[in-house]
Write a structure and sequence with these properties.
Layout lengths: L2 H12 L6 E6 L8 H12 L4 E5 L10 H7 L4 H10 L15 H8 L4 E2 L7 E5 L2 H5 L13 H7 L3 E5 L9 H6 L7 E7 L6 E7 L6 H6 L6 E6 L2 E7 H13 L7
Parallel strand pairs: 1-2, 1-5
Antiparallel strand pairs: 2-4, 3-4, 5-9, 6-7, 8-9
């Protein structure tokens, strides 16, 4: 049995819906799996009418992110200024997503893939509805109502955490945007248009420090669970998870009971 076939059985057992929309966060490190086999098994499970979506975030396109600070650690002020001037602009068709894992990069570079245009929090997809779901992404809205994440919620997408935990479940960010009163806002910086052209926009303060705890408190019957290469694989409905996360957040992020 090939890995692609074995994975296909796993995804079917979990309950991946043929013809559905599936957002995947994955870590293949130590699993002995090829990214193309995982991608193809996911597409097999979804079928010709399904759509596969992955996060293709680019936090290094910023001078306040952990990724940028790691790249510039130890530089003098002059060296960092030269580095900033050399940073290329975000290009949905060409900019890699090195911090998001090999599966995300595999999907992004597959012929026919569609990628949203946000310079920090783009998503890429393959399949029947990729253009519809990812074609519009407000550059001033990371993962809120004017992002593909809201469209995924609207079409009742599923979320697959493949050998990763809820701490990377970016769907929970949609719940942040829906909190009332709204979260605080801050300035973000990115390069767009041409090399070294740093621009600024404002959006909410994104916080994922409680995502693992929120995930641990979700109802046990919300997710289907299996194991792959010594780590957990979870599948669940995005709507229910986001709604539950919003309830949890509202109970303490704004001091509510």
């Amino acid at each position: 049995m090939t890995d692609r076939t074995r994975l296909g059985y796993l995804f079917a057992e979990l309950g991946v819906r043929p013809g559905g929309v599936l957002m995947v966060h994955a870590s293949l490190g130590g699993a002995g799996l090829r990214d193309t086999d995982v991608r193809d098994a996911l597409l097999d499970a979804l079928g010709p009418d399904g759509t596969l979506v992955v996060p293709t975030f680019t936090p290094e396109n910023s001078f306040t992110s952990r990724a940028y600070k790691a790249l510039t650690a130890g530089m003098s002020e002059r060296e960092e200024a030269a580095f900033r001037a050399s940073v290329p602009p975000f290009d949905p068709g060409r900019t890699p997503c090195p911090t998001m894992g090999v599966l995300a990069e595999c999907v992004r570079t597959t012929p026919g893939a569609v990628r949203s245009a946000h310079p920090h929090t783009s998503l890429a997809g393959l399949g029947a509805r990729a253009g519809e779901l990812l074609g519009e992404h407000d550059p001033h809205c990371h993962l809120g109502e004017r992002s593909p994440l809201a469209k995924l919620y609207a079409v009742d997408a599923q979320v697959l955490l493949f050998r990763v935990g809820f701490e990377v479940c970016s769907a929970f960010h949609l719940a942040e945007y829906r909190l009332r009163p709204g979260p605080p806002r801050r300035a973000y910086h990115c390069v767009v248009g041409k090399k070294g052209n740093w621009t600024t926009y404002e959006d909410i303060v994104l916080y994922d420090g409680d995502f693992a705890a929120i995930g641990a408190l979700l109802p046990r019957d919300l997710a289907a669970e299996r194991e792959m290469a010594g780590k957990t694989v979870l599948l669940f409905g995005m709507r229910e998870a986001v709604d539950q996360a919003g309830v949890r957040m509202s109970g303490y992020r704004h001091g509510l009971t």
